[in-house]
Design goal:
The complex is a heterodimer of chains A (232) and B (295).
Chain A: H1 2-7, E1 18-27, E2 31-41, E3 46-50, H2 57-64, E4 72-77, E5 80-81, H3 87-94, E6 97-100, H4 112-122, H5 127-140, H6 156-168, E7 174-178, H7 186-201, E8 205-209, E9 222-227, E10 230-231
Parallel strand pairs in A: 3-8, 3-9, 6-7, 7-8
Antiparallel strand pairs in A: 1-2, 1-4, 4-5, 9-10
Chain B: H1 2-17, H2 19-55, E1 59-63, H3 69-82, E2 85-91, H4 93-104, E3 122-127, H5 134-145, E4 150-154, H6 157-199, H7 201-209, H8 214-251, H9 267-294
Antiparallel strand pairs in B: 1-3, 1-4, 2-3
Helix pairs in contact in B: 1-8, 2-6, 2-8, 6-9, 8-9
Chain lengths: 232, 295
């Protein structure tokens, strides 16, 4: 099956950072979330995934970070087939992927610092390095004053920016952002997009799932639209 | 180095967040170790008392008549053919009478009109260490009873038997309390840590999404188990030591306890209890995290 899938890959000299080939995801009993989706993202590319709610954007991002497993099809990240990776290899790969979840997935009783530091702690980075990076990210997102506040005490918009800071903490190879500006005003949306552009300029591949037209209009980045599980 | 630093930081964070439950588990481990080691301490001291009493154990063989030197030789040979003895002393009625007078002290006048002849000839046999256990002494006594010329054999059977049964009972209690220690420690630690892990399920899920490896998640839990074992058994042994000192101070010269010197557990036994508890608690924590990671 893999051979058939590989044959259907578009002809390229080198593999893209993300290869999604004919991926279908069906939730039991028969809810088709994605249907034969194929997508290729190059290293250092910024891609927008658009479409209405329920179109399958979140599902696609969940498949890319192996939070879900596809029913059919092949997903490769940096040459690693997600279907065949061992548990440990998946964890190592996740360390190189930053995800800003739509529901944030912050730990409310931990401080802002502790939440953002988590992915760096997982990689055993030095405390000095962690402190420097967290301070830098909070300054860029206009949240310096919230460093020691419990994440649960912040507003939705602030929590969203903390989730983005956490995803960006390790300057990941691949950054997946699910509706990253859903709770933000125009000013803070600008700060978030500046951070994404900076990461992208430094080599991170970024996939942003959004239905906020303001963030992709007028840009020359590729844009894909998902409608009822199909990619256009 | 950084790995250990993070694991320790994470462990401290976990302990701080569930200190109430952790404290209860620590106290349970302490109590289990205290109960077990208390009985074990009594057992080792009783064994020591048994040995001391055994050193003074002798069998008195009352004879039909005085043995000639050749008869004594023959008697010694027959006794030695059963097992090794330390020494055999032949006692004449006169010697026995003198001893009895001495033992009676101020009441010795009750013997004033009596002739030593009412006392039988006897032989005192001091058995070797190998013969000083309950079943061997019984066999030895039966053997001596059946020797020609023997009237009766005495060695304080009832007392020795009672002491032997007491030691058996203590051994049983030590085994039971040891088993309880193992079960309590394993289950308490395993269930407590599992409860705290369930309470931290969201955090573990997020850690998994952020790429935390199994060793990153397991490490702090194992250290928690290790620390519970170390501090729990350490506190238990310390409590036992203070209890021992108190008993020694208040009761060491009283009655039965005055017969021998009370001793605390040897260092090697304390170390085994400490290491055993650490091992059990670490194993308990490993079981809890393994089940959760399998989910």
């Amino acid at each position: 099956m893999l051979e058939t899938l590989n044959e259907s890959l578009p002809p390229h000299d080198h593999p893209g950072l993300v290869e999604i080939v004919k991926v279908t995801k069906i939730y039991p009993p028969d809810v088709v979330a994605l249907k034969n989706v194929s997508l290729r993202a190059e290293k250092g590319e910024l891609i927008f995934l658009t479409g209405p709610s329920g179109a399958g954007k979140t599902t696609l991002l969940k498949l890319l970070c192996r939070q879900e497993i596809p029913t059919k099809g092949l997903i490769e990240i940096d040459g690693n087939d997600l279907n065949t990776l061992s548990d440990n290899a998946i964890q190592k790969l996740r360390q190189r992927i930053g995800v800003a979840y739509q529901d944030f997935k912050l730990l409310p009783r931990l401080s802002v610092f502790q939440n953002i530091a988590m992915p760096m702690e997982v990689q055993f980075k030095s405390l000095k390095e962690i402190r420097h990076r967290v301070t830098e990210l909070l300054a860029k997102l206009g949240l310096s004053a919230k460093l020691n506040k419990p994440a649960g005490k912040l507003s939705r918009g602030e929590q969203q920016r903390i989730a983005i800071a956490r995803a960006a903490a390790n300057s990941p190879l691949l950054l997946l952002a699910d509706e990253p500006t859903g709770n933000l005003d125009a000013g803070t949306t600008g700060l978030v997009m500046d951070l994404f552009r900076e990461l992208n300029d430094n080599g991170s591949t970024i996939i942003i799932a959004t239905h906020d037209e303001s963030i992709y209009q007028g840009t020359n980045h590729r844009k894909f639209e998902l409608q009822q599980g199909e990619l256009f | 180095m950084r790995f250990f630093l993070f694991i320790f930081t994470q462990t401290l964070r976990n302990i701080c967040h569930s200190w109430g439950v952790q404290l209860m588990t620590l106290l349970t481990v302490t109590l289990s170790v205290l109960i077990f080691s208390f009985f074990y301490l009594i057992y080792t001291n009783m064994l020591q008392a048994g040995e001391k009493i055994g050193e003074e154990l002798r069998l008195t063989v009352y004879l039909d008549a005085q043995l000639s030197p050749a008869g004594q030789e023959e008697f010694i040979k027959k006794v030695n053919s059963f097992g090794k003895v330390e020494k055999i002393i032949f006692i004449t009625p006169e010697q026995a009478f003198q001893r009895l007078t001495k033992q009676l002290g101020s009441d010795s006048d009750v013997l004033a009109d009596l002739s030593p002849a009412f006392l039988p000839y006897s032989a005192e046999i001091y058995p070797h260490k190998d013969l000083r256990n309950l079943s061997r002494i019984k066999e030895f006594s039966d053997y001596l009873t059946n020797l020609p010329g023997t009237q009766k054999v005495q060695y304080g059977q009832a007392w020795v038997e009672r002491f032997g049964h007491f030691i058996k009972l203590l051994r049983f209690i030590v085994i039971i309390s040891g088993t309880l220690l193992i079960l309590t420690t394993m289950f308490m630690v395993s269930y407590t840590l599992r409860l705290t892990l369930y309470a931290r399920q969201d955090e573990l899920k997020v850690l998994r999404y952020l790429g935390a490896t199994n060793s990153y998640i397991k490490g702090p839990v194992l250290i928690e188990g290790f620390a519970l074992g170390l501090f729990g058994s350490g506190l238990g042994l310390a409590a036992l030591f203070f209890l021992f000192q108190w008993i020694k101070h208040h009761f060491s010269s009283a009655g039965f306890l005055g017969l021998f010197e009370l001793r605390f557990l040897p260092m090697s036994d304390s170390a085994i209890i400490l290491l055993g508890s650490i091992m059990l608690c670490t194993l308990g924590s490993l079981l809890s995290i393994r089940r959760l990671l399998k989910k």
